[in-house]
Amino acid sequence: MINVNDFKTGLTVEVDGDIFTVLDFQHVKPGKGAAFVRSKLKNLRNGNTVERTFRAGETIGRAQIENRGVSYLYASSDEHTFMDNQTYDQFTLTSKQLEWELNFLKENMNVNIISYNGEILGINLPTSVELKVAETEPGIKGNTATGATKNAKMETGLNVQVPLFINQDDVLLIDTRDGKYMSRA
């Protein structure tokens, strides 16, 4: 059990039978009435984000999440196959379970699988990945007033706003948290 006063960003908790990770929290001490903790939680089973308020001092269950290194092998129709790097066991996840992550996954890429009591909840991507630009318009010289950008389609299908000097076949560093351009690789 963990006290809600000890919330930290990234902490995994069990509330009403579901597994959540704490995205944001705020301790509130109103002038009148009891203190409380306002939190923003992400459900790890379905990806929904909820806002929840707890009384100060309330205790909830802590979820022990297991992270294991796996390799992304291949995709076939709606299923994506991964292999455990230690046991070499293979398992599949559906495209629905990996909606956001599919924008960054490439074959033979190493990621971490998130599981709780044997139930696979999803994958953890690295903070940034290197992706090749599949197509983009050429930048026109003298077309920059301040920080002009253009659209670039990456090899995984992700569309990213990039500076005008980026060309097709360039390899870029993309942030997996928000899908934005960071720099050239």
From TrEMBL:
Keywords: Cytoplasm, Elongation factor, Protein biosynthesis
Translation elongation factor P/YeiP central domain residues: 67-121
Subcellular location as annotated: Cytoplasm
Residue ranges of domain Elongation factor P C-terminal in the record: 129-184
UniProt-listed Gene3D superfamilies: 2.30.30.30, Nucleic acid-binding proteins
Listed pathway(s): Protein biosynthesis; polypeptide chain elongation
UniProt cross-references to InterPro entries, sorted A to Z: Elong-fact-P_C, NA-bd_OB-fold, Rib_uL2_dom2, Transl_elong_fac_P/YeiP, Transl_elong_KOW-like, Transl_elong_P/YeiP_cen, Transl_elong_P/YeiP_CS, Transl_elongation_fac_P
GO molecular function per UniProt: translation elongation factor activity
The keyword Cytoplasm appears for this protein: yes
Family (UniProt): Belongs to the elongation factor P family.
Function: Involved in peptide bond synthesis. Stimulates efficient translation and peptide-bond synthesis on native or reconstituted 70S ribosomes in vitro. Probably functions indirectly by altering the affinity of the ribosome for aminoacyl-tRNA, thus increasing their reactivity as acceptors for peptidyl transferase.
Stated name of the protein: Elongation factor P
Underlying gene: efp
